[in-house]
Amino acid sequence: MFNKLKFTLVELLMVISIIIILAGLLLPALKSAKDKASQIKCAGNLRQTGYGFISYTGDYNGYFPYSHIPDWCKTGYSGYWYRVLTQYWPESLGYITGRQVEGRYPASLYCPSSNSLSLYGQSTAGNYGVNAYLSCNPPKSIDRLTKVSSGILLMDGDDFSIGYDEVDDFAARHYGRCNIVFVDCHVDKFKKSDIPYTPAWGWTPYIYNWWCASNPP
Ligand SMILES: [Zn+2]
User: Ligand 1 mean position to 179 CA, how many Å?
Assistant: First the structure.
């Protein structure tokens, strides 16, 4: 009886050891699969949001929305691009009413690889930044782009708009890369070092063209 029990304990230890070894092999593979799924989900979010941008340009003579409208009293809108786009998201329950968005923001505003529901600050939401070159001072028209597949719309970011000297707000959340959706709504991945920018506010013709597929205004 004692020998049998001893043998059983050895067997148990062997089984535990095998489980530990298998877990050590499988867990990295599971994490990698989870990271890949997050990257794909993020790309879908960006693509869907990109469709919202393009729908907006269709309703506003080709112009992109402001990244941020500071004076909501005059415009009736309360700031950020994602509020202006709310009505174009099929999943959205919200609608713009002055300073407020009634309802909730769409889940597609949130990258599954981000832990934050609001990286932009207290009054903002989401994990993506719009191309500041296209949506600032004032917004540009889609008709300016010589190649829509080269114009950047939106990307993984830690600010509501990215560009100029704000490239540090790029969030490389997926294998050291950030997802970017272009004006034709295809998504690609870039490292920070792949993206040209000026260290100070402004641009060069090359940088502007890289971001917007058009010459500076
Ligand atoms: Zn992402």
Answer: 6
Cα 4–Cα 8–Cα 14 angle in degrees, nearest 5: 145
Residue (of 177, 127, 181) closest to 154 by Cα position: 181
Determine the pLDDT at residue 196.
Answer: 84
Domain residue spans of the chain = 41-212
Distance 189 CA to ligand 1 centre (A): 10
Closest by CA to 126, choosing from 152, 164, 98, 162, is 162
In the reported structure, the alpha carbon of residue 23 is separated from the centroid of ligand 1 by a whole-number distance in angstroms of 27
User: What's the rounded mean pLDDT across residues 120-137?
Assistant: 74
Whole-angstrom distance, CA of residue 113 vs CA of residue 119: 13
Residue 167 CA to ligand 1 centre (angstroms):
16
Question: Of the ranges 35-44, 118-127, 128-137, which one carries the lowest mean pLDDT score?
Answer: 118-127
Report DSSP letters for 152-186, one per residue: EEEEEBSSSEE-TT-GGGB---BTTBEEEEETTS-
Burial 160-177 (b: 16+ CB within 10 A, else e): bbbbbebbebbbbbbeeb
Q: 6 CA to middle of ligand 1, Å?
A: 53
Q: What is the mean pLDDT of residues 93-97?
A: 44
> What are the pLDDT digits (tens) for 22-74?
888 888 888 888 889 999 999 999 999 999 899 999 999 999 988 877 654 44
**3-state SS class at 99:** coil
